[in-house]
Amino acid sequence: MADRDKFFVHDSAIVDDGATIGSGTSIWHFTHVREGANIGEGCNIGQNVYIGQGVKIGIGVKIQNNVSVYEGVEIGDYVFLGPSAVLTNVINPRSKFPRKDEYKKTIIKDGVTVGANATIVCGVTLGISCFIGAGAVVTNDVGDFALVYGSPARQMGWMCACGEKIEFENKDKQTSCPACGRQYVKVEDRLNLI
User: Fold this and answer.
1) Radius of gyration over alpha carbons of the chain, in Å?
2) HEC profile for 112-124?
3) Nearest to 25 by CA among 1, 47, 41
4) pTM of the model
5) DSSP 44-60
6) Cβ density class 123-158: b for 16+ within 10 Å, e for less
7) Among 11, 19, 26, 140, which is least packed, fewest CB within 10 Å?
8) What confidence tens digit (pLDDT) does each residue in 10-21 have?
9) How many domains does one find in the chain?
10) What is the CATH classification number for the domain harbouring 20?
11) 120 near 85, Cβ under 8 Å?
């Protein structure tokens, strides 16, 4: 583990030996970071969070209270995980039949927002700056800049990297964000930043 005067760990939190914590990161009340977890610089890990073995978390990530991030999850930079979001790691868990050798990898790319109480079923990829609405149940990959919500989650629109909803007029293939001016082009069912 890195030098403890470069990051903050609340007295009630547990950080196992073998975890790596980046400078400027804060780990709050009753959180448990397991061995082999790698948390980047400038992260804020809220109260009562669980970070499993081998989990990789990028820089500037915000994980709100009561979030479980299990083994097999990789989180990019500047990701936001809302309160009580859950990331699973086994498709068909059974108490009597452990499946620790069947963990499925879940990848959360840079800039993603996962709303409060959303569930991300393992084995999916959440694309760059996509936005998962509160309470959504994500069972499939989500494309870059896509806005999804519902149970199961379905795409309902597009979100700018800055977090504002973006619209396309009629059958236009190009648009810009009304808040920040970033420009996007639609290519088939994908959105690309210009």
Assistant:
1) 18
2) CEECCCCEECCCC
3) 41
4) 0.94
5) EE-TT-EE-TT-EE-TT
6) bbebbbbbbbbebbbbeeebbbbbbbbeeebeeeeb
7) 11
8) 999 999 999 999
9) 1
10) 2.160.10.10
11) yes
